[in-house]
Amino acid sequence: MTEVAPGGTFVEPAGMEDDVAALFAGDLGVLPYDARRALALVLQRRYLSAAAHPAEWRALLAHQNVLASRCHDMFVELVVDRDYEIAYKRQVREAGLSIPVLLKDEPYKRVETLLMLFARNRFRQEQGAGERAAHVDAEELVDYALGFLAAGETNLAARRREIDNAIGALVREHVLDEVADGRFRVQPVVEILLPVERLRALTAWLRNPSVAPVGTTDDEPDDETDDASDAVDEDEEAPA
């Protein structure tokens, strides 16, 4: 079956029997380079998008069945959302099967979740207005998060640092892409990360902050050096 890639071009699925040159000493892999990168990026990141990695996205579509098979061998499901042009992974859980869990739940921190909620609302508003893109400013995000401070909170500098760290985390996760200093484009993946069920839980949480919803945690870093600011992009090398 021929796949349609972004832009309306056709991608012919490639068979595993096709000869592929070895990429390194002792290489037994049968997938071409871009397909391997697609699989590795899906496993490494929260998601792979066509916008950020067009070559790997095309390779994923061309080799979707075999990549899904590779994931299934590890009890992991490959989810491909063609509407939003996003692929991500999900842990398989099946009653009656003893499955080693490879994917740890990595919940977003509370402030990150608040910012995602604001970003998702902005994304839906702009979509409803017929806009092709949705943007938010850093100060809008800060003001929104500060609105949920506990009564009597006095350490505003620490709270502002937490919010700034949360914005940085969402940029690293490519939920937000910085297009100018302090201005961010909201990526469609926010719809995937905050489905309707989680929105209901978040609404209940906002009414009763003492109960954290599924997918959030109160384990906030106490110091900005404890955040994920040293995360390395998949195309960069870690310093020696």
Description:
The structure is a single chain. The chain is of the alpha+beta class. The protein folds into two domains: 89 residues, Aspartate Aminotransferase, domain 1 (Alpha-Beta Complex); 119 residues. A hairpin with a 5-residue loop joins strand 1 and strand 2. Helix 4 crosses helix 5 and helix 4 crosses helix 6. The protein is globular. This is DUF4194 domain-containing protein. Pfam families: DUF4194.
Briefly say what this structure is.
The chain is α+β, with helices and mostly antiparallel strands. The protein has helices at residues 33-44, 54-62, 64-72, 110-128, 138-146, 156-172, 189-193, 196-207; strands at residues 3-4, 10-11, 48-49, 76-81, 86-91, 108-109, 135-137, 176-180, 183-186, 216-217. A hairpin with a 2-residue loop joins strand 8 and strand 9 (183-186).
Radius of gyration: 20 Å
Quick one: biggest sheet?
Answer: 3 strands, antiparallel
Strand content: 5-15%
Q: Give the strand tally.
A: 10
Written as H for each helix and E for each strand, in order along the chain, the element string is EEHEHHEEEHEHHEEHHE
Please give the share of residues in helix: 25-40%
Number of domains: 2
Biggest sheet: strands side by side, in what order?
A: 3-5-4
Structural class: alpha+beta
Tell me the distance between the termini: 46 Å
Please tally the helical runs, counting DSSP H or I stretches of 4 or more residues.
Answer: 8
Shape: globular
Low-confidence stretches: 214-240
Mean pLDDT level: 79
